[in-house]
Amino acid sequence: MESQVDNYKDLLSSIGVDVEKHSKMMKAGFQGYKEQFMSQENRPKGMEYFDWFMSEIQGERVAEINRLREQKKPAVGTFCIFVPEEIVVGAGGACYGLCGGSQATIADAESELPRNICPLIKSAHGFKLQRTCGYTQSSDFIYGETTCEAKKKTWEILDTHHPVHVMNIPHMKREKDLKLWKEEIVDFKEHIESVIERKISVDEIKKGIHIINAKRNAMQRIDALRGLNPDVVPISGRDGLLISQMSFLDDPTRFTQKVNELADELEKRVADGVSVVEKDTPRLMVLGTPFAPPNWKLHISVEESKGIIINEESCIGHRYYKDNVDLDESDDEDSLMTKLMERYSEVDCACFTPNTPRIDKILEMYKERKADGVIYYTLSFCHTYNVEAHLVTTALEKEGIPCLVIESDYSTEDVGQIKTRVEAFLESLTFKKKAQKFKGLK
Ligand code: BJ8
Predict the structure, then answer these.
(1) Residues with CB under 6 A from ligand 1
(2) Is the pLDDT of residue 437 over 80?
(3) Ligand 1 centre from 407 Cα, in Å?
(4) Which atom of ligand 1 has the smallest separation from the CA of 121?
């Protein structure tokens, strides 16, 4: 299997992609994917769909989005899980995450942005400057939000290259903040209506909610299968992460069907005791900032060091799919907007103060999954998650939960160092597990 990107040169060039640079980048990326993912042993058969999707990630999927645009359906690119994608999908359009996980675009971004800000923002901005992301180039507008300082100011610069619509996400959750939040969702809907030049109906919004609820349900199934069976892990952590990453790009209905098929297969694996790791392999949860593709280095370091990641408490992970929109008794637009606000305000991003529900959730998940330890992972210069690490690790310490804190960017420079630290952490967990077994505690 190879990257199919060269079959779409005409389309990509028509939307302004730098076709030569893009082709080189995508082919190198797919080669890395083949080496790191397709070479895994004992992989579930259902992952073949994701291999196909990866080969078409900047080809057929970008073509599908552009076919929707030709029918005057909205195409919205995002960098955050606060976007009410139900409205876009309900209007028949596509809402997707934009490229922002690669080191290859950062040097270009630094021509306009400071060096010492988060790599996610720089990478994403660099993709726009280089014109090497088919999704960015396909977007009617980019959804921006006021979650962190660096993003908030970058939108003003990005807007000089591509239209950006900014949603004002409050940083507290008092009644007056939630009122503002709901108004911002209404404003977002009206902005889409202005792009597609028509009203979005109540039935369309409800349809969008059904589609996205079904997608989140399917992802919750995978999450449970990964984490809730202490003796069997039916899928690797890197594949689990990949599914979450692709949830931001794929057509939601097709994705849901494929994820449910995979979940059926994993259920059978669990029943038959088919695990991708040996019994007693240390089981880790990862907490923190998002892992935009192709940022796989932590998962690969852990798995090469004989550990397994069973969950990501991250926006590309659990924080994205943990809550559904409650559709009961919502038959008019105003109540649908309220339900959307209620669902989105459950997101426990570190941009909120206080953010104690996040800590409670982490402890609950850890216990439910009978994990052996956690890695608190932050992207460099992400101040909110970095500072919140103190509160989280203090709570973990009180509960006697082993934790390794890692701060990293997208470069490969620290791979060796991360691996050494992960290996030492896993060794200590293995030792602890053996000691507990000896004492009859686990
Ligand atoms: S809901 S975590 S996706 S804002 S860009 S905050 S890493 S310094 S991505 Fe996020 Fe929405 Fe919150 Fe989730 Fe830090 Fe970087 Fe800012 Fe970031």
Answers:
(1) 80-82, 118, 120-121, 147-148, 150-151, 289-290, 315, 347, 349, 351, 379, 382, 384-385
(2) no
(3) 14
(4) 5
Q: Of 46, 55, 119, which Cα lies nearest the Cα of 290?
A: 119
pTM to 2 decimal places: 0.96
pLDDT of residue 441: 64
Mutation test residue for ligand 1: of 120, 145, 168, the one with most atoms within 8 Å of CB: 120
pLDDT of the residue at 434: 81
Does residue 215 fall inside a structural domain?
Answer: yes
CB of 169 closer than 8 Å to CB of 146? yes
Torsion of CA 81, 82, 88, 94, to 10 degrees: -20
Q: What is the CATH number of the domain that holds 313?
A: 3.40.50.11900
- Distance between Cα 3 and ligand 1 center (Å): 30
Encode pLDDT of 41-64 as tens digits. Answer: 999 999 999 999 999 999 999 999
Pair of tokens at residue 149 = 């300082």
Range of the domain at 264: 208-323+350-441
Q: How many other C-beta atoms are found inside a 10 Å radius of the C-beta of residue 129? A: 16
Q: Is 89 left (phi over 0), alpha (psi -120 to 50) or beta?
A: alpha
CA of 59 to the centre of ligand 1 (A): 27
Let me know if residue 179 belongs to a domain.
no
Q: Residue 190 domain-assigned?
A: no
Question: Do the beta carbons of residue 103 and residue 82 sit within 8 Å?
Answer: no
CA distance 211 to 208: 5
Local confidence band at 160 (pLDDT 50, 70, 90 cut-offs): very high
Residue 262 is assigned to a structural domain of this protein: yes
